[in-house]
Amino acid sequence: MQNKRFISADRIVVKIGTSTLIRQNSKINLKVIKKLAHVLSSLKKDGKDVVLVSSGAIGVGMGVLGIDTRPIKISKQQAVAAVGQAELMQIYNEAFHEYGMSVGQMLITRDIIDYPESHTNVMNSFQELLSMENTIPIVNENDTVTVSELDHHTKFGDNDQLSAIVTNLVDADLLIMLSDIDGFYSANPLKVPDAKLIDQITKINPDIIAAAGGHGTKFGTGGMTTKLKAAELILKHNQQMVLTNGKNPEVIFNILSGEPVGTLFTKNPQ
Ligand code: GLU
């Protein structure tokens, strides 16, 4: 049995990926969303500051519109995201209301990094939302306006990196990344049966990058590489990140009570 970790976190960012929110049959996983609402509402009621970064706009939109394969055309992806985002927020709204919480939708673009005025505006919004007693900000990329071509780079690229940027911005103590894998493995566990779950990572070195392998699911854009990029940003700012499986969001309670869940990225190994 591994030692307990010392995790002290008053301000927490939780990121949930499409693969955790959407079932294999393209239906939204309401059980996960309800549990997540319960856990985050309890943390907020305990006096913690909580931000949720949620993917799923395109995945949910595909379900609503009855589309099987993620569209290739960017404008089509944007339209699907517009439909899915509305549905997703409605579902979050209902789930959080059960616990007396409101949600605040924050759709952001890379402009918040490049333009000081946008940065200030988004910081002010975060500050106000975080100071509200019964409100949880839910962040996603503003998919209908972001592009990543020619000289326009308003896109973060993926929500793994977006969640790390948000963690930096709001100066959170911890980023909890809920995914469809139990943590970071020494090799792809689907291909290498004796791949080992790594308990803690202090540096993103070439061996770790090589172990990360390929891409994400048919609905999302992630995969291990984007998670490592996020971790790199977290370590650079001397923050901490736990990567773990989000199938039961109550795992967040275990993480905060110091149980050695998933992989902890930290500069201060414990
Ligand atoms: N913003 C995209 C969505 O909500 C997700 C991007 C990602 O999964 O990284 O579908």
Automatic annotation (TrEMBL):
Name listed for the protein in its UniProt record: Glutamate 5-kinase
Compartmental location: Cytoplasm
GO biological process per UniProt: L-proline biosynthetic process
PROSITE patterns: GLUTAMATE_5_KINASE
GO cellular component terms, A-Z: cytosol
Pathway given in the UniProt record: Amino-acid biosynthesis; L-proline biosynthesis; L-glutamate 5-semialdehyde from L-glutamate: step 1/2
Keyword tags: Amino-acid biosynthesis, ATP-binding, Cytoplasm, Kinase, Nucleotide-binding, Proline biosynthesis, Transferase
Residue positions binding ATP: K15, S179, D180, T221, G222, G223, M224, T225, T226, K227
Xref: CDD domains: AAK_G5K_ProB
Enzyme Commission code: 2.7.2.11
Ranges for domain Aspartate/glutamate/uridylate kinase: 11-245
Family membership: Belongs to the glutamate 5-kinase family.
Residues at which substrate binds: S55, D143, N159
GO molecular-function terms, A-Z: ATP binding; glutamate 5-kinase activity
Protein function: Catalyzes the transfer of a phosphate group to glutamate to form L-glutamate 5-phosphate.
Main EC class the enzyme belongs to: transferase
Signal peptide: none
Gene3D superfamilies listed in its UniProt record: Acetylglutamate kinase-like (3.40.1160.10)
Catalytic activity: L-glutamate + ATP = L-glutamyl 5-phosphate + ADP
InterPro entries: AceGlu_kinase-like_sf, Asp/Glu/Uridylate_kinase, G5K_ProB, Glu/AcGlu_kinase, Glu_5kinase, Glu_5kinase/COase_Synthase, Glutamate_5-kinase_CS
